[in-house]
Design goal:
Blueprint: H1 3-26, H2 34-58, H3 66-81, H4 87-91, E1 95-101, E2 106-110, E3 115-118, H5 125-138, E4 152-156, E5 162-166, E6 174-178, H6 187-192, H7 198-209, E7 214-218, H8 224-232, E8 241-245, E9 262-266, H9 280-287, E10 294-300, H10 304-312, E11 320-324, H11 330-341, H12 348-358, E12 361-370, E13 376-390, E14 394-402, E15 408-410, H13 417-421
Parallel strand pairs: 7-11, 7-12, 8-9, 8-10, 10-11
Antiparallel strand pairs: 1-2, 1-6, 2-3, 4-5, 5-6, 12-13, 13-14, 14-15
Helix pairs in contact: 1-2, 1-3, 2-3, 9-10, 10-12, 11-12
């Protein structure tokens, strides 16, 4: 496809669309809905392509045939409402990660572990920055700046993928997109793809039903958010859920058949004058005033940890969250590190007491290249640790530990076994003790 032509046609359609918006506003008409605007844009694209074809004929050149015209129309529409040349990558169900180090250095990671070099996504780094700025303006709940004064950006794309971009702190603009391949996911799906055993799935189902507070830990791209979604989908539909995230990603509100009563909060960054910011910690506090059955914090990365732990100890049982860590045991020190940096400046001893009173289970999910099967990437739950108390530091027991094939298998008695038994989990089935 001639990307320069797509860019020119997109500019023409965009100008006509903007002109129609101005005319509607001058006539006192309400603005078009998103779907109406898309339909109107399709009509404009048809007009512009027809004019282009007539111009080519008048100049003695061959006009685009039906197949080429269809491809041009799709390209212009993607440039207007999608993500330009990124669109085909986001539509490929096998692509899991897209890393871009400048407009022409595109690295694509597939679900089976393959890494390949892709085609350029823009003609210049400046055009790449413009593309990111358009996404920042129209994705999420509020416009997010991306410029020399705001060189970092995190947001969720319309398809649910997570985008992180930087400029000026790197030689060339760079962005990473992590695909949300499994949105409507259940524990049975994760058993089917080898993430966990049936025994562990029964345990998780009972733990969620028993309203246990669960922290999911793992490395980047290990599958923490996918596991959190699967656990959330065990929550009964009558419960009111409030999610708190830096950038909307969980998307539980997108499935009203599973969760009809969901409020999704997104952190708001300051404007160009440094005003209007709303932090994760503030949103967690606000969520407690909105009658939640459960509060779900998408990812803990900072001072919101103290507010979240306090929420878990104030009757909001059944909360879920994720955190970056290298093992289930390391989670406690990671939380303590965040708490020391928080506004409350909690000492380590107080933090460990708070953890012991708030968290019931820590789940560790890891990713590993299985070289025996050609380097295929595996993701699996390898450890579940139960918090049992505090004696200066958090006391815990690894109730599921890594088995011979990596999967977590029962390894120690569960202290809250009676609670889980009331929700259908029989601890006598798999324990070696």
């Amino acid at each position: 496809m001639d990307h320069a032509l797509v860019k020119r046609l997109r500019q023409e359609v965009g100008d006509r669309l903007a002109q129609q918006r101005r005319l509607d506003a001058a006539a006192g008409l309400p603005p078009m809905s998103g779907e109406d605007e898309r339909q109107f844009a399709r009509a404009l694209i048809g007009q512009v392509l027809e004019e282009y074809a007539r111009g080519e004929i008048a100049a003695g050149r061959r006009p685009p045939n039906a197949e080429e015209e269809e491809a041009l129309a799709a390209g212009v529409h993607a440039a207007l409402f999608g993500v330009g040349r990124l669109q085909p990558l986001l539509e490929d169900p096998e692509i899991e990660n897209i890393d871009i180090n400048g407009c022409d250095r595109v690295f694509i990671g597939y679900a089976d572990g393959r890494e390949v070099m892709g085609e350029p996504v823009a003609d210049s780094d400046e055009e790449l920055i413009e593309l990111i700025q358009v996404l920042a303006a129209y994705s999420g709940l509020s416009s997010r700046p991306f410029d020399t004064a705001n060189p970092q950006l995190d947001l969720r794309l319309p398809d649910g993928s997570r985008l992180s971009a930087v400029m000026d702190v790197t030689v060339r603009p760079a962005l990473s997109i992590r695909r949300a391949r499994l949105h409507k996911v259940f524990l049975s799906d994760l058993v089917g793809n080898g993430t966990m055993t049936e025994e562990l799935a029964r345990f998780f189902s009972a733990a969620v039903a028993a309203r246990k507070n669960i922290m999911i830990a793992g490395a980047t791209n290990a599958g923490k958010t996918t596991l959190l979604r699967a656990l959330a989908n065990e929550i009964p539909p009558h419960e009111r859920l409030i999610t708190v995230e830096r950038a909307l990603e969980l998307g539980l509100d997108a499935f009203p058949d599973l969760h009809p009563n969901v409020v999704a909060f997104e952190q708001r960054l300051p404007n160009s004058e440094g005003q209007g910011a709303i932090s994760m910690a503030e949103l967690v506090r606000r969520s407690l005033r909105m009658n939640p059955s459960r509060v779900i914090v998408g990812e803990v990365l900072g001072d919101e940890i103290v507010t979240m732990l306090n929420a878990m100890t104030q009757g909001n049982d059944g909360s879920l969250s994720t955190i970056h860590a290298n093992s289930s045991m390391e989670v406690f020190n990671r939380i303590a590190t965040y708490a020391i940096q928080a506004e409350e400046r909690l000492p380590v001893e107080a933090t460990h007491m708070l953890i012991a009173g708030a968290i019931d289970f820590v789940v560790f999910i890891e990713k590993r290249n299985d070289y025996a099967s050609g380097g295929r990437l595996r993701r699996f739950v390898s450890s579940v640790r139960e918090v049992t108390g505090c004696d200066g530091r958090v006391l815990s027991s690894e109730v599921f530990a890594m088995g011979p094939d990596g999967h977590a298998v029962p390894s120690a008695p569960i202290a809250c076994a009676e609670d889980l038994a009331r929700h259908g989990y029989d601890t006598s089935l798999g324990g070696p003790w």
